[in-house]
Write a structure and sequence with these properties.
With about 500 residues, the protein is of the alpha/beta class. It is built from 20 helices and five strands. It folds into two domains: about 375 residues, no CATH class; about 120 residues, no CATH class. The chain has a five-stranded mixed β-sheet. The longest helix has 27 residues.
């Protein structure tokens, strides 16, 4: 269909590239602590800036794959070689690399499955959802194991589907197997998608056993490469995938992080996916599994979802590897609903009332998309960025009354911390005055998580100059009923002794 000719989509590609680039620059920080502590802080260890004691317990247990910290290590080393030492700029490079991989996955899925979409309208929706779905753009820029594993798996899946219809060579099979293998070592749970696909090839597609062996050889080759990378990182031979399974599954350590009910994912998808539109993310997969039981998508998704539903500890991010396939899944399911046996549903989906529903979705998706393009992923990291940018070259002490902003977990967030910065807790006005009086630093910063400075820290001998807040200044004009005073807002003051 001409709609997927390069001339017709180059502008869409350019627009989505710009949106992803803007998001990469502005979406500082991380979606989850694992994205930082078990990747960037691991890389920071190999860079010589962390001690083993600075790292989470997973380091000593050797249960995290080292491939992603290794990529971060190489990108940071390259950045340093060309004079870029700012960790926030280095993190932007990692987010750009992430979205380029994600867009490659999306574009290959579009190209491989374009002939499966018979309706021109649904093909347009395939394009729109692939490039502009708000939570997909947010996920695409994350330098996370969930994002990279999902992108790699669906790159392999798209290539497999394309070459399966063109003719699979041994080189194709082993290359795709290597891609699947790396998807597994980026995030072990993606192995369930690989497992489901192999079962489909074996029992439904009836792939030749020889071809299956070649595909599996590629997977094993990638896993062996992962073992060598783990050896480089941990300093001894280990198989981190087995360590992960032993600690989290056999020993049940994963339950220490919280246990949730079986329907957690359904509830979370409904709420976080923005109702009522999120109903499509729940109902359409169920419909597909029931009416297309022999589909490769069904065989891949069922093991992945079933295990995640059965394991007690659940987080919505665990389903992020599936995000790139959601547009295809939606349009294929809607295409099924347009068939004669679902005539009433099909007519409703083409009716005027549903058209207004679509218009509302476009508006809501645009609002959310603009929001994620310009807001940080983590407001603490925005604070780190301000401190690093303005005080990295001077000896600075950051004091706080509540909690150390750089201690997000039991371990410190050293990657974003300047070597010239020292943090210290104070308990009262006397402590504050002592710090100022005995000042041995070029600058002293005082951080609070409230909109207004607490009266108990106000003193006639110390001057407070507000230099940062994660709240835009214009919002202060709408402090109706004093809601700002009840909201957690990071505020930073530069303090000094008042000269008499």
């Amino acid at each position: 269909m001409k709609i997927l000719d390069f001339k017709n989509i180059k502008w869409l590609l350019l627009i989505t590239f710009i949106l992803h680039l803007i998001t990469s620059i502005n979406s500082v920080g991380f979606h989850h602590l694992d994205e930082h502590y078990q990747i960037l802080e691991f890389a920071n260890y190999k860079l010589g800036n962390n001690q083993p004691s600075d790292l989470p317990w997973e380091f000593e247990a050797k249960l995290r794959p080292a491939v992603q910290p290794a990529i971060a290590f190489l990108i940071i080393k390259f950045s340093q070689s060309i004079g870029i030492t700012d960790p926030f700029t280095q993190a932007i490079f990692l987010r750009i690399l992430s979205f380029l991989l994600s867009l490659l996955s999306v574009c290959l899925l579009l190209y491989a499955f374009k002939e499966e979409i018979k309706s021109k309208t649904l093909l347009k929706w395939f394009l729109y959802l692939s490039f502009f779905l708000w939570f997909a753009v947010y996920s695409h820029v994350r330098f996370s194991s969930e994002g990279w594993s999902g992108s790699l798996f669906f790159i392999g899946f798209a290539l497999f589907y394309y070459f399966k219809h063109k003719g699979l060579s041994n080189f194709n099979l082993i290359s795709i197997g290597i891609i699947f293998g790396f998807a597994f070592i980026f995030r072990y749970q993606v192995g369930l998608l690989v497992f489901g696909l192999i079962l489909w090839l074996l029992f439904i597609d009836r792939m030749k056993f020889k071809n299956l062996i070649i595909l599996t050889t590629g997977i094993i080759a990638a896993i062996l490469i992962g073992v060598f990378i783990d050896k480089w990182f941990y300093g001894s031979w280990t198989f981190s995938a087995w360590n992960y399974f032993q600690f989290n599954i056999l020993q049940g350590r994963v339950s220490n992080f919280g246990v949730h009910t079986w329907h957690f994912y359904i509830t979370e998808i409904f709420i976080k996916g923005v109702p009522p539109f999120s109903l499509f993310l729940i109902v359409l997969p169920i419909f597909w599994f029931v009416y297309k039981p022999k589909s490769s998508l069904t065989w891949m998704f069922i093991p992945f979802l079933l295990i995640h539903f059965l394991i007690g500890h659940k987080e919505l991010r665990f389903l992020f590897p599936l995000i790139n396939i959601i547009p295809l899944f939606i349009v294929l399911a809607l295409q099924e609903l347009e068939k004669k046996k679902f005539k009433k549903i099909g007519l409703y989906l083409q009716g005027k009332k549903f058209r207004w529903f679509i218009y509302l979705f476009l508006i809501v998706n645009s609002i959310y998309l603009i929001n994620i393009c310009f807001r940080p992923a983590d407001y603490y990291v925005s604070l780190y960025q301000f401190i690093y940018k303005n005080y990295k070259d001077v000896k600075t002490e950051l004091i706080f009354s509540n909690e150390d902003p750089y201690l997000r977990a039991p371990e410190p967030a050293n990657f974003y911390k300047s070597k010239n910065l020292l943090t210290k807790i104070i308990l009262n006005t006397d402590s504050l005055q002592y710090v100022v009086t005995e000042n041995k630093f070029d600058k002293i910063l005082f951080m609070t998580d409230t909109f207004l400075l607490d009266n108990k820290y106000k003193t006639g001998s110390v001057e407070f100059k507000k230099v940062y807040s994660n709240l835009p200044k214009w919002v202060e004009n709408f402090n109706y009923n004093h809601w700002l005073e009840r909201t957690r807002i990071f505020t930073l003051y530069e303090i000094s002794k008042i000269q008499k």
